[in-house]
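Input sequence (148 aa), recorded before submission:
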Amino acid sequence: MSDPNIRHLETADELRAAFPVMQQLRPHLADPVDFAARVARMRAENYALLAVWEDGEPVALAGYRYQENLIYGRFLYVDDLVTTERSRGGRHGARLLQALEGIAREAGCAKLVLDTGLANALAQRFYFRQGLLTGAMRFSKVLGGQAA
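Predicted structure, token format:
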């Protein structure tokens, strides 16, 4: 990555610093300890968390993982993409997507894939501006297991 203000979160302190940012996207996350434990479990499934840093604080996050399936082949899936409310408009999301595209290309991925809610028109417009196109509609069913 050529942007010195974008780097992966590696330590427990970095995860704790990132918790308030992620909580803006995932308000159901209870506390930094739970967040760090979830990230640790997800890392076993190739999850990584990339951050834009300003003045020693994360202001935007992108959680992602490599996956492979019969539809796309090898691809990079973006689980989470969030910029703090006060930092929106600073092109942090665009910078993170650009960094993720580079990471995906370097890893030989055929696609970069992410999901967003049907009602999230602002995010959809942002993704279109970044060159992402809709390609599917996802269906799901709540089964009552451990919630997100």
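Checked by second reader. The chain has a mean pLDDT of 91.
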